Amino acid sequence: MIIEQRTYTLRPGTVHQFLALYEAEGLEVQSSALGNLVGYFITETGELNRVVQLWGFSTFEDRLLRRKELSSSDAWRAFLAKAGSFVAEQRTELLTPAPFSPIR
Question: Sorted alphabetically, which InterPro entries does this protein's record hold (predicted)?
Answer without folding.
Answer: Dimeric_a/b-barrel, NIPSNAP, NipSnap_domain
